[in-house]
């Protein structure tokens, strides 16, 4: 083998090694890294997600899979919970979750992070947006007090792409690709699931969800 050919072989081997290392340690949001096991469901929710994700609906929530979307409805608050990609998984302390949400007849609808479910109530931070463009973070602890959590307005849309990055007790919120808020709060530090949530507006809580993605962060 000539010297030139040997150099080409070495460069090729190094290139393959670098590419392999890059693919197992992908760059994530805010300089973080993903663990390489992102989970996505075009239609999230029980009976809608056919990829094996662990989903459960609150006992007062009705779910249907229609028009390529998960449709949820309830008289008061609708909650559908995701607790991992499979039966052996769990929700870590750092993750990113996103979904396309259409509030429909709901006051607001969106994501519930640091969610903990029990037979009595569901707690966590509800990060949601309404059909009027108003978004907010609600401390879903049952006492109705929102505290010093952020809120704001975005351009009115029928469907919003909501993205939340959870890193311990800090959360970063993006709507339609733009960062709109960030907060740190210690009321809820753990959680065993991530929720899709809709709050009642007069007669019912009703919303559609699609294109759900969940990514553990390193």
Structural class: mainly beta
Main CATH class: Mainly Beta
What fold name stands as the CATH topology?
A: Jelly Rolls
CATH superfamily: Exo-inulinase, domain 1
Strands, count: 15
How much helix is in the residues?
under 10%
What is the overall number of helices?
A: 1
Radius of gyration of CA atoms, rounded to a whole number: 20 Å
Order of helix and strand elements from N to C terminus: HEEEEEEEEEEEEEEE
**Cα end-to-end separation:** 43 Å
Q: What share of residues are in beta strands?
A: over 45%
The gist of it:
With 218 residues, the chain is mainly beta. The chain has a single domain (28-216), classed as Jelly Rolls (Sandwich), CATH 2.60.120.560. The protein has one helix spanning 3-23, and strands at 39-41, 55-57, 62-66, 69-74, 77-82, 94-102, 109-117, 122-129, 134-140, 151-153, 160-167, 170-175, 178-184, 193-199, 205-216.
């Amino acid at each position: 083998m000539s010297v030139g050919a040997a150099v080409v072989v070495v460069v090729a081997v190094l290139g393959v090694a670098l590419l392999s290392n890059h693919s197992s340690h992908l760059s994530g949001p805010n300089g973080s890294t993903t663990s390489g096991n992102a989970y996505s469901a075009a239609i999230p929710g029980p009976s809608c997600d056919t990829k094996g994700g662990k989903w459960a609906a609150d006992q007062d929530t009705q779910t249907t899979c229609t028009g390529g979307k998960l449709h949820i409805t309830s008289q008061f608050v609708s909650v559908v919970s995701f607790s991992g990609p499979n039966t052996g998984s769990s929700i870590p302390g750092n993750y990113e979750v996103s979904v396309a949400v259409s509030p429909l007849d709901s006051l607001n609808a969106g994501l519930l992070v640091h969610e903990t479910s029990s037979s009595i109530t569901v707690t966590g931070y509800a990060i949601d947006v309404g059909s009027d463009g108003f978004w907010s973070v609600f401390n879903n602890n049952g006492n109705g007090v929102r505290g010093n959590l952020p809120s704001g307005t975005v351009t009115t849309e029928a469907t919003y792409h909501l993205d939340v990055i959870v890193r311990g007790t800090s959360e970063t919120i993006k709507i339609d690709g733009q960062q709109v808020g960030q907060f740190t709060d210690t009321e809820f530090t753990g959680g065993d699931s991530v929720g899709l949530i809709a709050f009642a507006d007069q007669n019912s809580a009703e919303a559609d969800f699609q294109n759900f993605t969940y990514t553990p962060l390193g």
